[in-house]
Design brief:
Layout lengths: L5 E9 L7 H10 L4 E10 L5 E5 L5 H4 L15 H10 L4 E9 L4 H9 L12 H11 L1
Antiparallel strand pairs: 1-4, 2-3, 2-4
Length: 139
């Protein structure tokens, strides 16, 4: 089975405030076949620095409902060490969403590279902010 590149992102939310703008966009990406969600976990750090982790399937049904229809078997791929490392970066009274996704749009090219005997020499994600800065600097 060919698998596209997999990456994770961790997004912090000051004040423990998750808002609804992200879920509809994730649904759109899944529905279009661009990505497949592999894991989605939430970390909360209270004002005293106490950390809790919540998998998507353990959220309150009202909170979880915004993530309905994201598809796939979601959960269980982040280790406790992964979650602890991200929690260390959070300031007190904040939250993070940690998302693991497969770039399904790249499954075909990944398989073609493998069948051609090719091997990846490098693959790196460049943050949008870095690209935006490069464009601004070159203008």
């Amino acid at each position: 089975m060919d698998v596209g590149p997999v990456e994770y992102i961790a997004v912090a939310f000051p004040g423990n405030r998750f808002r609804g703008e992200i879920a509809p966009e994730l649904k759109r990406l899944v529905a279009s076949g661009t990505v497949r969600i592999l894991d989605l976990t939430f970390i909360r750090k209270d004002a005293d620095g106490v950390v809790s982790h919540v998998e998507l399937d353990a959220l309150d049904p009202t909170e979880a409902s915004v993530f309905d229809d994201i598809g796939g078997e979601v959960g269980g791929l982040f280790s406790q060490d992964d979650l602890d490392l991200i929690a260390e970066e959070l300031v007190p009274n904040s939250s993070a969403a940690i998302l693991l996704w497969e770039h399904t749009w790249a499954v075909g090219i990944t398989g073609a590279i493998r069948r051609a005997g090719g091997e990846y020499l490098a693959h790196e994600h460049i943050p949008a902010e870095a690209v935006e800065r490069a464009y601004q600097d070159s203008a």
